[in-house]
Specification:
With 63 residues, the protein is mainly alpha-helical. The protein has one domain. 44% of the residues lie in helices and 0% in strands.
């Protein structure tokens, strides 16, 4: 779950909404990409979205 909750265990399932390595792997496989490519795309998408929706990334605020 280190992908979203910060526990630093990428394979531990903690709740219904947190992302595990296996979730990213399934998405990568579905799109014909590697996990590394998928994580890079996610970072690029975040960068673009931050530019367009900066208010959604302010600490303490929800979208």
């Amino acid at each position: 779950m280190c992908l979203t909750c910060g526990c630093m265990d990428a394979h531990l399932e903690m709740g219904e909404s947190n992302l595990t390595y296996e979730d990213i792997k399934r998405a990568a496989d579905e799109n014909g990409r590697s996990v590394a490519e998928t994580l890079r795309i996610m970072e690029q998408t975040e960068d673009k979205d931050r530019e367009q929706h900066a208010n959604e990334y302010v600490d303490g605020r929800t979208a």
